[in-house]
Write a structure and sequence with these properties.
mainly alpha, 65% helix, Rna Polymerase Sigma Factor, Chain: A
């Protein structure tokens, strides 16, 4: 399968012409894409996983949809190039999440827009308009609090709570020992409590950011 065909599949994964493709498991599609350079098999993998990959990146990017879209496209192009080396020891989705996390980290290194290491540095998001009339929207506040976590902690929270990934899979995706993953998650929960308690003592996230 040519790189141009792969780019077409990434940009707009259309419904497969062969209905049987939809019935295949991920690893069967991977094998077809690896062995037979099957463009429809790869397009089906993109269709199945693009929303989950974008959702992960969206939260890592602090809600920047345009950036998440750009990075997601890069993820699938890298996956296409790396597919011949995929040994199928991990689930395809786990392997894809690892690529997505590495793409995001590469972006942080190039742009220094996010802080990928520092535990003590918080990234403040711009205050929203109005005076936060619906404080009861806990989910919105939680998303904003997650965006203020250091990147390793943010990734742990996103994968475990929002993507429903196991500890073992998280260790594979983040390239960390299992114990370190659990420590990141524990510290992330503690930091989230601190952030949201600080908001409770003010008038919400926008006041705390001033």
């Amino acid at each position: 399968m040519s790189r141009s065909r792969a780019m077409e599949a990434v940009a707009a994964p259309a419904a497969a012409r062969d209905p049987s493709v939809r019935e295949l498991a991920d690893m069967q599609l991977v094998r077809r894409a690896q062995v037979s350079a099957d463009a429809e098999a790869f397009a089906e993998l993109v269709r199945r996983h693009q929303a989950r990959v974008r959702g992960m990146l969206l939260r890592l990017c602090g809600g920047d949809g345009a950036l998440a879209d750009d990075l997601a496209q890069d993820v699938f192009l890298r996956a296409f190039r790396a597919l011949p080396r995929f040994e199928r020891r991990a689930e395809f989705g786990t392997w894809l999440y690892r690529i997505a996390y590495n793409v995001f980290l590469n972006h942080t290194t190039r742009t220094r827009r996010f802080d990928p290491i520092s535990e003590g540095t918080e990234r403040r998001r711009p205050a929203p308009p109005a005076s936060h009339p619906d404080r009861g929207d806990v989910r919105r506040d939680l998303e904003r609090a997650i965006a203020q976590l250091p990147v390793p902690y943010r990734a742990a929270v996103v994968l475990y709570y929002l993507r429903d990934v196991s500890y073992a899979e998280m260790a594979e995706i983040l390239g960390l020992p299992l114990g370190t993953v659990k420590t990141h998650l524990h510290r992330a929960r503690a930091r989230l409590r601190e952030i949201m308690l600080a908001w409770d003592e003010t008038d919400g996230p926008e006041e705390a950011a001033r």
